[in-house]
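INFO  loader      accepted 1 record
INFO  loader      residues=372
INFO  predictor   begin
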Amino acid sequence: MKIPASVAMPLTVRVRRSPFWPRSHAAGGHNYISYNHTLIAADIDSPQHDYQHLKDAVQLWDVGCERQIELRGKDAARLVQLSTPRNVSSMRDDQCFYIPTVDGEGQMTNDPVLLRVAPDCYWVSIADSDQILFYKGVAAALKLDVAVTEADVAPLGIQGPRAEALVSRLWGDQIRELKFFRHTRVPVNGRQMIIAKSGYSTQGGYELYFEGSDGADALWDELMHLGADLDIKAGSPCQSERIESGLLSYLSDITPDMTPFEAGLGQFCYMESDLGCLGFAALQLKQQPVRQIRPIEISGESLPPLQSFWQVTDKEGHIVGRISSACRAWSYDVNAAIGLINDSHWNAGTNLTVQTPAGPREAVIKDRFWGR
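INFO  predictor   done
INFO  writer      dumping tokens
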């Protein structure tokens, strides 16, 4: 659902705003979508300007739509493991884990980031879905000793190559020692809140897990002031940057009819023994996919926006896959795409045709994503 830029308020209270929404909107946020029943700006400036600025400087992202499912109680770790084939037993207290979550058939239900915030408490930072219902249902069916709630947490993204310089000005040089996908706590409004070295870009940065709503405007303003000489501006997750970097989007690139192996996430699946994942038996039979995510370069000038899957065909015209995301990767002067391709045609260098709204375009399978 898209909200016109002229609309200053959600149409109903069912479409929520994060505590950072007023500042993000005032900074120029527009082309809103509803994600986890929460507004998020698809653009702040023009897509190409946002893309280049993200690579050059630092941006604040209102990503409060990344809702946190809180699992708290004696059986919290067991409930997490029931949902994912990744082994979470070795997770350290300061780690973030990217986990594919699956149903009993081994099909993807989400691809969240998992944080362990206390010995018996986890936050599951979800992509757009009703994953909380899965956890509630499994917990109820198995009578687990765990409370499943939505935490009052709205992440704030601090992204770009100058993000480290910015956060160190507010929280000290020790923040520079934080490793990728690790988290620590920093003082915010007199409280200790989690900050992780993570984010939905490959330009470097952090995500602050802001709790509650009080003080959000003041924090935003302080970061903007501290980053003035770093060319800070408001931003939002950048489609072109994430596509060229191979950052997948659940319900776009990853769909509920796919397994983690088809999504290229096999490295996150522990298949040596059953740790308790509900989909383990099904996944054992699906470890050799016949289709898989691939980077694809599409020839020609910039393409129109992708609003539905584009068919991928071979030289005989047979359908051999689909394009789920495409963009102009301006840094590389190519049309970059993410596709789900059959095993008969997924090798790097294979020439294909993509059926786009602008007509058929020649395409080729690449050996890696451009931004990696």
